Amino acid sequence: MVIDCHNHLGVDLLFYLNAHQPYAQDLPTLVEIGRSHGVDRWLVFPMVSNLTFDLQRMRQGELAPGGFEAIPYAFENARMMTELYDRYPDLGRDTIPFAIIDPLREPAAQIEHLRRLHAQHPFRGLKLQATIIKSDVRALLTTGRSFLEFAAEFNLPFIIHSSIAPEDTWSQASSILEVAAATPEVRFCLAHSCRFDRPSLDRVAELPNTWFDCSAHRIHCQAVEQGLPIIARPENRLAADYRDPAAVLQCLAETYPTKLIWGTDSPFQSYIDDEIALRSTYAEEVACLNALSPTLHRAATCDNLLALLQLPDETLLSGN
């Protein structure tokens, strides 16, 4: 079984209103593209900006309160679950839904909504992208501790966007690892290969409750070639030939065989804004994956994700 562990569904109005790309993806599109390249299942969660933010400020590239909704991600999570369970149940059964959260804003109201949603439409984990919404991941240890308690209660893991850029004070890989070390009863996956930061990857290997995914792999290799600061500095960077993304993935898989989880970050396998133009395709992401040996391929596309999820029965992958 080949599972893509990192996919967004829905619309991101921040990207759309500022002419950035991508900005949308629906379930039929994801499944059609994925199946055409040999993928069987998809772990999915909503886009990042949400309707608690003011649309006029979004159009100016800012996220500020004053939107249509009062509870962060309540609309987006419910909307996605309706798409998976009610609109396209034939496709939704091949997904692994995660709910997305904001650890800082209205945590009690979010938890109340998540409890109702989970009872109606079970989800298998929690997603956090703290950078865009500027909501410090370390709030999970303070204001948002209830999310860790909720995850422990329902045995749900986290997938968390990671960063190493100094100006990103919200979602540093080191901060996520600090949360993970303080919460051994909860499991965590750090997205984007920790931006190839070797100390962070080695710490993931040390902690029994952490994994990492390689989502948006090829454009992160491009970022190395372009010298972008979103990637670890050379002295901290995993040693590999970044001109060859397949070779980098091979290095990651061999160095961390029980920790690497494969994912595309669709539709964000490409990322284009006013300053950055990084482009890849779903097909190219799969081609990198298929260069792995059968043993490493199975670990990255199935076994390591199942270890993160800890599903009592693999039939639960259907979401039913």
TrEMBL record:
It holds the Pfam family Amidohydro_2. Residues 3-304 form the Amidohydrolase-related domain. Signal peptide: none annotated. InterPro entries: Amidohydro-rel, Metal_Hydrolase. This is Amidohydrolase family protein. It comes from Actomonas aquatica.
